[in-house]
């Protein structure tokens, strides 16, 4: 474990949101309670590795873990041991394992508590998730020396994908994979395999899945940011150029005018009984949040989800894929239409969709998703990985996985991601909040006053603000940044990019900073939503006043 995570004082500001509305004020505590029941500690090679499990298996998957970090990064002290363990077990080729465990998985037939490592060959998304997990861990405690030591491992992981003939289509310059349901881990075989197929063989059907490519686009950009931070500007330019080439190729090949085609086939294969051209798959909102889309593309995807919700009658529009595949065609009779990743409803998708909605001018829609999720989990205090479209929750009997725990940290973390970075609008754009974007969107939720604090327990740093809408006259924001030295306001100057949602029909006449006077601002429209944009370098706790007109 990294020393930065072992030797810090208690968090001076606990992450919290106070608005007087339960759907926002209680979400952090509820998600934290789910995640605290999802922890796994394993003694491997004489060291304790602490991670977080998916609700459907007692193992630490880098896929779930890297997304769940968006929830537990606020309160977890140990953000490094799992990342380091995946790095330590990396193959010479650069390949990363999918997961590890010391717990028997297939009871009662498997009883051995051996240490097990698994890589599912049909998956092409593992390495970008490893990069993302390392980046998020570094962002929370800001140890440049730690991430610099990991940098060769990160580069080797990405090189593995773009050099391996299983995963790279050199003709199109895109990541490829076998025919799976979006990012999931079993492939279509047209009946050639007796159950779920996790292997690649001579009968594998290959194609391009958009979510892999948006994931590597984001990973390449992470590498560019890290290289720039570590004083390697030429290498940063290389990674940024690779990212832009990948994005351009992805949009040329996968975009169909309304959303990203689920699977652009490289092999000659047709699955009877489904209109593959109409299949909307779960990585679409993730593509938006990873930055792979234009604003216009993001709007088209969001509108597509809303349109399908009205048409399908599902209790929520957070589909894993719509329309689903015919029952059982992937080799398991449990994969009926509407079950699991074959058309099930995932809070993971809902959280990503809400985050995208907040960013692209659909703020009230994002609020609506958060409110519906609050209603889902408030009554029983439970959240499942997936639900049938009629609202029934996943169970062991209906899943292909050994567990179906009511503590879904994967989806609930996505909802928290939408709340904190979307509605509350607190985005760490550096490390330890040394570069910050504040985009309070409380007006879309009918909230006139809010108090927000977001902190990393790992390093003891935090940022916070109070928000007040004073009638039609002004918006007042008081911003603070807590140090990692036991509290108080840090003297370090922080660059803050403000992107403040204004009341409908309003404009910012003037923006002033207490002690500094007026500052330059821009009025911008995101769809029909007015925002005031300005940048301020702050040291102490400033007061920002936006005069409305």
Question: How is this structure best described in words?
Answer:
- The structure is a single chain.
- The protein is an alpha+beta fold.
- It has two domains: 37-423, Glycosyltransferase, CATH 1.50.10.10; 435-548, Immunoglobulin-like (Sandwich).
- 34% of the residues lie in helices and 20% in strands.
- It is globular.
- It starts with a helix and ends with a strand.
**Alpha-carbon distance between the two ends:** 53 Å
Overall spatial form: globular
Provide a count of the helices: 14
Structural class designation: alpha+beta
Overall domain count: 2
What characterizes the major β-sheet? 7 strands, antiparallel
* The CATH top-level class label of the largest domain: Mainly Alpha
How would the blueprint of this fold be written?
Layout: H1 3-6, E1 16-18, H2 22-25, H3 27-36, E2 39-44, E3 47-52, E4 60-61, H4 62-72, H5 81-88, E5 99-101, E6 116-118, H6 126-141, H7 144-163, E7 168-169, E8 174-175, E9 177-178, E10 206-208, H8 210-229, H9 233-254, E11 264-265, E12 280-281, H10 283-289, H11 295-312, E13 321-322, H12 347-359, H13 363-378, H14 409-423, E14 426-428, E15 435-438, E16 449-456, E17 461-470, E18 474-482, E19 494-501, E20 508-513, E21 517-519, E22 522-526, E23 529-538, E24 543-548
Parallel strand pairs: 15-19
Antiparallel strand pairs: 1-16, 2-3, 4-5, 5-6, 7-8, 9-10, 10-11, 12-13, 14-15, 16-17, 17-18, 18-24, 19-23, 20-21, 20-24, 22-23
Helix pairs in contact: 3-14, 4-6, 4-14, 5-6, 6-7, 6-8, 7-8, 8-9, 8-10, 10-12, 12-13, 12-14, 13-14
């Amino acid at each position: 474990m990294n020393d930065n995570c072992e030797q810090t004082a208690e968090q001076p500001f606990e992450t919290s949101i106070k608005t007087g509305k339960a759907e926002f004020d209680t979400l952090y505590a509820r998600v934290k309670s789910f995640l605290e029941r999802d922890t796994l500690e394993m003694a491997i090679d004489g060291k304790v590795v602490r991670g977080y499990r998916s609700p459907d298996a007692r193992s630490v998957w880098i896929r779930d873990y890297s997304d769940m970090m968006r929830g537990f990064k606020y309160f977890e002290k140990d953000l490094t041991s799992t990342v380091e363990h995946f790095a330590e077990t990396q193959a010479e080729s650069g390949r990363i394992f999918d997961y590890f465990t010391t717990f028997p998985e297939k009871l009662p037939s498997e009883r051995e508590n051996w240490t097990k490592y698994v890589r599912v060959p049909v998956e092409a998304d593992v390495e970008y998730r490893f990069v993302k997990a390392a980046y998020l861990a570094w962002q929370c405690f800001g140890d440049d020396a730690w991430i610099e030591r990991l940098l060769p491992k990160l580069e080797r992981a990405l090189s593995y994908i773009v050099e391996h003939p299983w995963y790279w289509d050199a003709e199109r310059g895109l990541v490829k994979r076998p025919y799976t349901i979006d990012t999931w881990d079993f492939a279509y075989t047209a009946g050639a395999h007796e159950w779920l197929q996790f292997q690649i063989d001579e009968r594998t059907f290959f194609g391009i899945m958009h979510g892999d490519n948006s994931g590597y686009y984001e990973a390449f950009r992470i590498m560019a940011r890290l290289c720039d931070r570590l004083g390697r500007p030429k290498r940063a330019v290389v990674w940024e150029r690779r990212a832009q080439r990948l994005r351009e190729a992805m949009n040329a090949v996968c975009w169909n005018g309304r959303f990203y085609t689920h699977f652009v086939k490289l092999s000659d294969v047709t699955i009877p009984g489904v209109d593959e051209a109409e299949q909307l798959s779960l990585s679409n909102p993730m593509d938006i949040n990873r930055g792979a889309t234009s604003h216009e593309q993001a709007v088209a995807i969001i509108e597509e989800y809303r349109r399908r919700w009205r048409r399908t009658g599902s209790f929520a529009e957070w589909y894993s894929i719509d329309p689903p595949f015919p029952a059982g065609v992937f080799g398991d009779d449990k994969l009926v239409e509407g079950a699991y990743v074959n058309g099930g409803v995932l809070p993971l998708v809902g959280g990503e969709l809400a985050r995208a909605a907040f960013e692209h001018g659909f703020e009230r829609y994002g609020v609506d998703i958060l409110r519906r999720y609050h209603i889902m989990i408030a009554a029983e205090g439970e959240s499942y990985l997936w639900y049938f479209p009629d609202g029934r929750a996943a169970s062991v009997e209906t899943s292909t996985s050994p567990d179906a725990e009511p503590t879904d940290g994967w989806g609930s973390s996505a909802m928290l991601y939408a709340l904190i970075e979307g509605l509350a609008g607190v985005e760490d754009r550096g490390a330890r909040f040394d570069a910050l974007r504040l985009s309070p969107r409380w007006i879309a939720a009918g909230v006139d006053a809010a108090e927000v604090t977001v902190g990393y327990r790992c390093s003891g740093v935090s940022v916070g603000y109070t928000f007040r809408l004073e009638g039609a006259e002004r918006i007042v924001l008081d911003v603070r940044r807590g140090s990692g030295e036991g509290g108080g306001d840090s003297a370090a100057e922080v660059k803050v990019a403000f992107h403040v949602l204004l009341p409908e029909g309003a404009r910012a006449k003037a923006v002033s900073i207490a002690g500094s006077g007026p500052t330059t601002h821009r009025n911008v429209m995101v769809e029909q939503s007015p925002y005031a944009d300005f940048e301020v370098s702050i040291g102490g706790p400033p007061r920002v006043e936006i005069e409305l007109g």
